[in-house]
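Field reference: sequence -> structure
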Amino acid sequence: MPNDKTSPAEAIAVVCQPLAGLPACIAGSTVTAETYGRPLAATSDTDVFCFSEQALIASVQILLGNGFELDERFKRVWQRWLRYGLRSWHTNSIRLLDPNRFEVNLVYKLTGGHPLTSLAAVLESFDFGLLATGYDLMLDQRMDLRSFLFPGMDVDGPLPMMPNKRSDWTKGFISQYNGLREMGRYAKYLNYGYDLSLVKPDLVTGYQQAALYLLQREEPEKQQLGGVYLAISENIEADRADELLSASKELKTLDSLDAIMEALE
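Structure field:
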């Protein structure tokens, strides 16, 4: 975990230097903290998105050669990758610890079955507009897409969801994978102190629209998921971050709709 004296820029530089020139980028909460002049949260980590499987493997090997260590839980993941390669999961990720014991996540991400091969594509794959800045390691360039994605808005003020994500959410087009995880993302950035006032109404609408559809289905598990979505929408509307985070943690253990519902009540 970062200490109180570590700045976001310092955390980014630790990763930028050894990975300079690789087809990858840095984006996510650490870059966002730098963008908005905020300190690193206690749970902050640095996210590196690699544009190919080869870049992911090379990045891990380079960091290991620069004093980084594999998180204990990911040592088996690394061995399986080397032996069998990556699978076509939506997201392949691995966690390392830098020499100061800060967490670094290396990610190879697919959207629609296709890899994200640019910083712009990675940023647009995020959910919240406040995440629209990052570092392109291959070009050695910092990019800020906020004025492009949100023309006419104060980019340093509250921003809504990313345009493509906002379109889907307001219509209730939410996959179960995304729907069950979005509550944790929202709660995390709420606790970081960001203004999500323009994100909240679209999330609430999306969960309600999806719930209305699911509750009309005949399958019991679909109806149960609809009930979970309604509970999530109520907790988001009331900004109950603790309840949302508690429910989100159940995903890491049971991934059970019953356990998630209990955490939301």
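Note: The CA atoms of residues 249 and 255 lie 9 Å apart.
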